[in-house]
Write a structure and sequence with these properties.
7 helices; binds adenosine-3',5'-cyclic-monophosphate; Alpha-Beta Plaits
Length: about 140
């Protein structure tokens, strides 16, 4: 069993797509090990995306991620990290395969509906940023 960390981003929550995305999560065989609806402060978004702090899009990204509620999730299944990345599709919705979440629900590389950890180390950091061990079922 592997866990990954996922976010339903402010664009998708505001558009009323949380339910449809959660349905896709469960249909794909993930167990939801933890879930919370929260609104990030700008500082919390900056801490979460600290690896991108030198990137030109960092300020826009963290402003967007703190612009409205998000759903944060711990997802569990064998191969969860890769499986969730495959379900999301490419970062840029325009390049994502048909049938992927970002293609279906995203509108730009920034407003791309979902986030997922890209490796075991980032999954460990990202899960612990939002969830205590006791919250993971
Ligand atoms: P995410 O998976 O949340 O990880 C970092 C985010 O930065 C990424 O999704 C995109 O939303 C965003 N991002 C990556 N590259 C760019 C870019 N060139 N311009 C704007 N945003 C970007």
């Amino acid at each position: 069993m592997e866990r990954t960390f996922a976010i339903i981003k402010p664009d998708a929550v505001a558009a009323g797509h949380s339910g449809a995305i959660l349905q896709r999560v469960e249909a794909a065989g993930f167990t939801i090990a933890a879930m919370r609806l929260i609104r990030l402060s700008k500082g919390e978004a900056q801490g979460f995306y600290a690896v991108h702090q030198e990137r030109p899009f960092f300020d826009d990204l963290t402003t967007f991620m703190s612009s409205g509620p998000v759903v944060v999730l711990a997802l569990a299944v064998p191969g969860a990290i890769g499986k969730w990345r495959a379900l999301m599709g490419a970062t840029d919705p325009a390049r994502a395969d048909p049938g992927t979440l970002r293609r279906e629900f995203g509108s730009s590389i920034e407003r791309n509906a979902t986030h997922g950890s890209d490796a075991p180390e980032t999954a460990a950091f990202e899960l612990s940023y939002f969830f205590r061990g006791l919250e993971l079922v």
